[in-house]
Design a protein that fits this description.
Chain lengths: ~375, ~300, ~325
């Protein structure tokens, strides 16, 4: 039960040209499951390690329950971590692995046994207590790694991509287990992943990072509905949002030769360059006339839905040069055929506008 | 642990490390400084004092010319035995290690097991029967009596085996074989170009082992003209006054050696190996670690 | 909270128990790969037979074919008045050497591993240099080091009560002296190997131990040491075998006439050679060689078996 506060925490590696973590200000609430997500190199793991005490904090502060931990050794911070590759001690049994930290803390043997047993029961690994890690499967090892953290009854859990070494199906199952476990135990948890689906399904709140800078920290739904900038918009959601180049004109946006009218007032002067964001699931065939023209290049039928990939036509430009394919979601078996020229429009209110130079989202009045 | 206690432990650790540094290194420093001083200076001055360059030159001259340039003859012998042995060792070990790692043949695992066992047995226990065998073969007194045993280097085979197992993906070879390449071509065109580090490593170990070997030449050579420098060193001790005073009576005309001369001889004896150590150190350590860290 | 057993999830592969590769019968694929393998190993196998197997066979033959009947060579050797002392010498030497080498090599390597990378590299290099002087050269260097009149360690020798060289190399000190020489020459290489082994431990494990509350010392004892156990055993095996065969150091030290305590048959290997070269007693000499060989092999086998050292793939 603890509140974790990052206050302009910064970490620059000795040969780095920019900070790995740049003035991060973030608060993890008591008992919250906060996910740190972002592409490789965004600083999420470094942030986790700074909290763990495995990385120096060059500038700024980190507080746990209001007390600065920046000068405390890892073991004095009352934090437990689940490592990406589990970091199980190969020469010790599962029980010994789980009890090691308690042994270091000179907890009496009987209590160690009790706590290890209880944690093993929660994670359903009781039958493996005497085995060595090399005799376990990946999923079992992952659970031992979690058990090791639980046994310590720490103030904060840290998890560094604990699911990335599991195969897809096991990942989905374990995802739900971890989330449920955390809810039961109620321990403040900071969880790092590069997988945005994991982030969206597990986190109470999700913090998106890029190049060491925090982009946005909100509930999953808010991130989806109200992304702060182009990066967050493109990162969250799968398949990712379509981003097109446009110009403000006459109360609407001109994309190539088409103009899409905006529903409400635009607080942006005419002529301004904008990036238009359209999620695949918000696109549909436009009624006669109007709409964004594109020629279908490929259709992915997934059974429950279909995704149409179409090449933009008629001078409509993508925001990123070269990525001129627009993706639209269709109900199964209703998709147009490859080669067809289609016109797409967004459902009401689903179009998002971002200031082209800065990437910040333009809030459209209603 | 309180910060001060941790500092104290670290201090003790540094002290211990420095103690051992002195233990390992002081003899070397002394050795290199000794020929610059006279015998008397060695006794009276500090061990770390530098004598003079002229003394060094005299010492060098005295030891090299001793007994009709014996030192040079011994060096030549060492070179022949060691280079010959090393060449043979590389020639035998590299293909063998490759075959053990990346080809299939009946008896492969048996050969590997035998190699491991033989590796554990240093050759010295076999020197005597080896001596008798060499004698029977009529090779006694020839350079082959030394080059052949030096060329038998199971440790080199094991290192090569580990190296090829770790660095060449089996898929690469499978692809080449599917493409129709014969085994020899696979070895020549794929494995060998990648083998430079291991050739250097095996060569290094074989050379050092051959150059420093004492027991084998001790048994296999009988005349001063055949001695490698290691045996020669031992002979020189016999002629060194401070270690064999009884041998020399006053007024004797035999050239007598003193400590600086003997030290100079040691330096000459180890110079090749030391040079190799120093220059190859970086790649050696990496190579050694590659072998040492295979799981 | 019940959790579906991982084994029931398809796509999960349970590691084999014990982690050992279960031996499969080697069935080489058809084709030229099979015969080519023989060509590649041909030269090595020739050398192996000629210089590895044949001498052993010959030695065994010699040891058992004495004129007094099979086994009499062994009896004669055991009864030789120099046999038991030689083995006493060698065992005392090995006890001192192996114990101190293990403690110091492991201890020094752990200490170095704790330091920064560059610092460690510098120390390791210095420790390694004496390895270039293996054999006679190192004995000569230590001849100088043990002479209280000229040695840089003179103060230490005087403190131990040795005023003159023949005090230092008194017979009782010989096992310790040879142990020092062997350690001085060999420790560096083993430190490099141990250091490599320590580096092979995933850094995550060390960090995890840190977070689990282990300080540097406890991490070394509970995590690092057990994980390099294999290499420590390897070091013991090789050193034991080499130690039983001690020859160079006593021979070269004995060349200094002041070394009266260093007889020409101080170590068993020396005795074997002495018997062969002075008395033509080849059978007895071979018997001693076989005993030494067997000793090394037995201990090696024990350690390898208990330590599961070599897993042949």
């Amino acid at each position: 039960m603890a509140i974790v506060t990052f206050d302009e925490a910064t970490r620059t590696y000795p040969n780095g040209d920019r900070p790995a973590v740049d003035q991060l200000t973030l608060e993890v609430r008591d008992g919250e499951f906060l996910v740190l997500v972002g592409p490789s190199g965004c600083g999420k793991t470094t942030t986790l390690r700074m909290l763990a005490g495995l990385e120096n904090v060059d500038e700024g502060e980190i507080f746990i329950d209001g007390k600065s931990v920046v000068n405390l050794a890892p073991r004095d911070r009352d934090i437990a971590m689940v490592f990406q590759n589990y970091a199980l001690y190969p020469h010790m049994s599962v029980a010994q692995n789980m009890g090691f930290a308690l042994r270091m803390a000179k907890v009496p043997k009987s209590e160690i046994e009790e706590r290890v047993g209880a944690a093993a029961k929660i994670l359903d690994i009781e039958e493996y207590l005497e085995r060595k890690p090399r005799q376990l499967s990946g999923g079992q090892r992952q659970r031992v790694a979690m058990g090791r953290a639980i046994v310590r009854q720490p103030r904060v859990f840290l998890m560094d991509e604990p699911l990335s070494n599991l195969d897809a199906k096991l990942r989905v199952a374990t995802r739900a287990e971890i989330a449920a476990l955390q809810r039961n135990l109620g321990v403040t948890t900071l969880y790092v992943t590069h997988d945005q689906v994991e982030a969206m399904t597990m986190g109470d709140r999700v913090a998106v990072m890029k190049d060491g800078v925090l982009q946005q920290c909100d509930t999953p739904q808010t991130l989806y509905d109200e992304p702060a900038n182009v990066f967050v918009a493109g990162f969250i959601g799968s398949p990712s949002m379509n981003l097109l180049e446009g110009t403000i004109e006459d109360g609407g946006v001109r994309l190539g030769t088409t103009t899409v009218l905006a529903a409400g007032g635009l607080p942006v002067p005419a002529g301004a360059a904008v990036t238009v964001g359209l999620r695949p699931e918000s696109l549909a065939i436009a009624p006669a006339g109007g709409g964004i023209p594109a020629r279908v290049s490929m259709v992915e039928e997934l059974g429950s839905e279909a995704f149409v990939h179409a090449k933009l036509a008629d001078g409509v430009s993508p925001a990123v040069p070269g990525e001129d394919t627009i993706v639209a979601r269709f109900e199964p078996r209703t998709a147009p055929a490859p080669g067809e020229l289609i016109h797409l429009r967004a459902k009401d209110g689903a179009m998002m506008l971002f200031d082209a130079p800065s990437g910040e989202r333009i809030v459209v009045g209603s | 642990m309180a910060l001060s206690r941790r500092h104290a432990m670290n201090f003790i650790a540094i002290m211990i490390l420095l103690f051992f540094t002195a233990f390992f290194f002081v003899p070397i420093i002394w050795l290199f400084l000794a020929p610059t001083k006279t015998d008397g200076q060695l006794l009276t001055e500090s061990p770390f004092a530098f004598g003079s360059l002229s003394t060094l030159a005299h010492t060098f001259h005295r030891i090299v010319t001793y007994s009709d340039y014996s030192v040079l003859i011994w060096l030549k012998n060492s070179a022949i035995y060691s280079f010959g042995g090393t060449a043979l060792a590389i020639l035998a070990a590299i293909p063998a290690g490759y075959a053990l790692a990346l080809t299939h043949f009946i008896g492969r695992r048996l050969l590997l097991a035998i190699t491991l066992v033989v590796m554990i047995m240093p050759a010295t226990a076999l020197v005597l029967p080896l001596f008798l065998e060499i004698n029977k073969l009529g090779l006694y007194g020839t350079i082959w009596a030394l080059i052949l045993p030096f060329g038998f280097f199971p440790f080199g085979v094991y290192l090569t085996y580990i190296y090829f197992s770790a660095t060449i993906p089996k898929d690469l070879l499978a692809a080449a074989r599917i493409d129709g390449a014969g085994e020899w071509r696979v070895f020549w065109h794929i494995a060998l170009p990648l083998a430079r580090p291991i050739v250097a490593l095996v060569g290094f170990f074989a050379f050092v082992a051959s150059w420093n070997n004492f027991f084998l030449p001790f048994v296999m050579t009988y005349d001063s003209s055949q001695y490698p420098i290691q045996i020669g060193l031992q002979q020189l001790i016999g002629s060194t006054a401070s270690f064999n005073p009884a041998n020399y009576s006053a007024g004797s005309s035999i050239v007598v050696l003193h400590r600086p001369d003997l030290a100079m001889a040691v330096i000459i004896a180890i110079a090749p190996v030391l040079l190799v150590f120093l220059f190859a150190q970086r790649s050696l350590v990496t190579g050694m670690l590659a072998g040492a860290t295979k799981e | 909270m019940s959790v579906p057993s991982a084994a029931a999830v398809p796509g999960e592969r349970l590691r084999r128990r014990g982690g050992r590769a279960v031996g499969k019968r080697e069935r080489p694929p058809a084709g030229s790969s099979r015969t080519a393998g023989y060509f590649f190993v041909a030269l090595y196998v020739a050398l192996l037979l000629l210089l590895g197997i044949a001498p052993v066979v010959y030695a065994i033959y010699l040891a058992f074919s004495n004129s007094g009947g099979a086994g009499s060579a062994f009896v004669d050797a055991f009864n030789d008045y120099r046999f038991v002392p030689a083995f006493e010498h060698i065992l005392e030497f090995m006890a001192i050497w192996l114990v101190s080498q293990t403690i110091f090599v492991v201890g020094l390597t752990l200490m170095l591993h704790n330091q920064a990378q560059r610092v460690g590299a510098g120390f390791r290099f210095i420790f390694y240099i004496p390895g270039a002087l293996a054999g006679a050269a190192s004995v000569v260097v230590w001849l100088f080091m043990l002479d209280p009149t000229a040695s840089p360690f003179a103060f230490g020798l005087h403190w131990l009560g040795y005023a003159e060289f023949n005090n230092t190399i008194a017979p009782g000190n010989l096992p310790a002296i040879f142990a020092i020489m062997a350690f001085w020459t060999g420790a560096g290489a083993w430190i490099v190997v141990m250091y490599g082994a320590l580096n092979n431990i995933p850094h995550e494990l060390i960090e995890c131990a840190q977070m689990d509350g282990a300080n540097a010392f406890k991490t070394a004892i509970f995590i690092k040491l057990p994980l390099i156990r294999k290499w420590v055993v390897y070091m013991l095996v090789l050193s034991f075998a080499a130690g039983t065969q001690l020859f160079v150091e006593p021979t070269v030290l004995g060349s200094a006439a002041l070394g009266v305590g260093v007889s020409k048959f101080w170590s068993p290997n020396q005795l074997a050679w002495f018997l062969a070269s002075q008395y033509d007693e080849f059978n007895e000499a071979a018997a001693i060689s076989i005993v030494l060989l067997a000793l090394g092999l037995v201990v090696a086998g024990l350690l390898v078996w208990r330590g599961r050292l070599f897993e042949v793939e």
